[in-house]
Amino acid sequence: MKKPPQGKSVLVLNGPNLNLLGTREPKLYGKDTLAMINRRLEAKAKAAGVTIDCFQSNHEGVLVDRIQQAKHDGVGFILINPAGFSYSSVAIRDALTAVQIPFIEVHLSNIHAREPWRAHTHFTAVAVGSVLGLGSQGYELALDYAIARLKARS
Predict the structure, then answer these.
(1) Catalytic annotation on 112?
(2) Rounded to 5 degrees, what angle do the CA atoms 9, 48, 10 make?
(3) For the segment 110-124, what is each residue's pLDDT rounded down to a tens digit?
(4) pTM score
(5) Class of residue 5 by CB neighbours under 10 A (exposed 0-12, middle 13-18, buried 19+)
(6) Catalytic: which of 59, 72, 87, 107?
(7) Closest CA relative to residue 91, chosen from 116, 66, 109
(8) Active-site residue identified among 29, 112, 120, 145
(9) What ranges do the domains of the chain cover?
(10) CATH for 9-153, options being 1.20.1250.20, 3.40.50.9100, 1.10.10.10, 1.10.1740.10
(11) For residue 1, is pLDDT > 60?
């Protein structure tokens, strides 16, 4: 695969159980599957002339490895839905701060309107911003911002 121009790509990372979207608690997370969300993001990125890579894993170390690889690949922006790792993964947070790639934290549900322990994530304080509670549209809004930032840098 041809390597994109330095800094002109977006990495979308999805954490545990997001591979079950569409069937997992649809009243809370919506009916869109992760594949449907990824297709919309890929179309939006292509239209903007930006390369995008969508990646999901249920394993913390695999996500850390992919974040570290993003630096080597010249990724310019990351969108991440850490899912359950939002509240437990210092390792993913440290990987994101280590690579110094700007990122947006995305959550399908409004984590502040749920159980009190969900209100604090390890990522919010080091993210460029957070999009939450807007369902799958939150990914698209985050991508719009990322594309604008990438274009402003070039």
Answers:
(1) no
(2) 20
(3) 776 666 666 668 899
(4) 0.91
(5) middle
(6) 107
(7) 66
(8) 29
(9) 9-153
(10) 3.40.50.9100
(11) no
